[in-house]
Write a structure and sequence with these properties.
The protein is an alpha/beta fold and 78 residues long. Helix content is 31%, strand content 15%. A 3-stranded parallel β-sheet has the order 1-2-3, covered by helices on one side. The longest helix has 13 residues.
Length: 78
């Protein structure tokens, strides 16, 4: 059986998202045997509607994570 998940890619309110923590989470999931990670491509759904919340752009984040991972399948979540 193959498991996957969608990590939080935006801060709540004015919180700042740290890429290194997100990367570590994805790499840890790969070591635990997860098969997929799905990145949300809707830039306005995160951060509870706060326009000041920081968010990672989907395609850029997927590109960087692809360079960091080996076996995970990465995709967009629509």
């Amino acid at each position: 059986m193959n498991f996957g998940y969608t990590p939080l890619i935006a801060g709540m309110d004015d919180e700042r998202i740290d890429y290194s923590k997100l990367r570590d989470l994805v790499l840890r999931s790969e070591k635990l045997g997860y098969g997929t990670v799905w990145i949300n491509d809707h830039m306005n759904l995160e951060g509870k509607g706060n326009l000041n919340a920081e968010i990672f752009e989907c395609w850029t984040l997927l590109s960087v994570l692809a360079a960091e991972t080996r076996d995970l399948r990465l995709g967009t979540l629509v």
